[in-house]
Model the fold of this input.
Amino acid sequence: MNSVEEVLASLSTGEVEVLDLTAPLSRETPSLVLPEPFVNLIDFRIEEVSAYNEPGPFWKHHNIHTGEHVGTHLDAPIHWISGREGKDVSQLDLGRLVGPVVVLDFSAEATADPDFLIDVDHMTSWQEKHGKFPANSWLLFRTGWEKYSHDKQAFLNLDDEGSHTPGFTAACAKWIAEELDISGIGVETVGIDAGNAATLDPPFPMHYFLLGADKYGITSLRNLDKLPANGAMIVVAPLPIVGGTGSPTRVLAIVPR
Ligand code: MN
Done:
């Protein structure tokens, strides 16, 4: 057997399992809400064109209406001003969309403090305990935020001072972007930065440093609690929208059992 056949054989015996890390896309899917005066993207919706009726008697089909950055989606480098000369979502390196996955669990910290920010110390102590992050890997940050994904209010956690959801310090975002040989990061929250990241320096530091360093980000992930800390593989499949700054993305994990 070649190595691909070995994986396929393991899939058929159940030794290897495919997990969906993607949130379902519907009108209810929560998306980012920017404060005034910024302009928000539209939410996802489908529009019926025919349903086995006069406009199409033998078939059903829809138009879809969506912003690029809705639901489980990927941020391409050109999404941010720091990556404006970089790749759009149709140009991403395919070899980096499949790779090892590492899961870092900060759910206890984020439950205790919704404004919790992951710092460089958390990253270096994780590596001391578990070893170096593999080359070409995706770092997925578990915060337990998935449990709010059915409730838009709780998921965005907005009050008069803004949104309260966990994320990264500016120093940590810079360190991840510049010191690690990874493909990208993924989070459970609506964006790759903390809810209050407009107040950090630079504002939205994970967007700024990660996308500026030609790395990719994914948001609104699910089922991270079902992944091992190490040893699984991820498949990230955004639509190749020409000139697109991001895309709703199917994210699958290939997990040994
Ligand atoms: Mn985005």
Notes: The chain is about 20% helix and 30% strand. Helices lie at 3-13, 107-112, 120-130, 152-156, 170-179, 205-212.
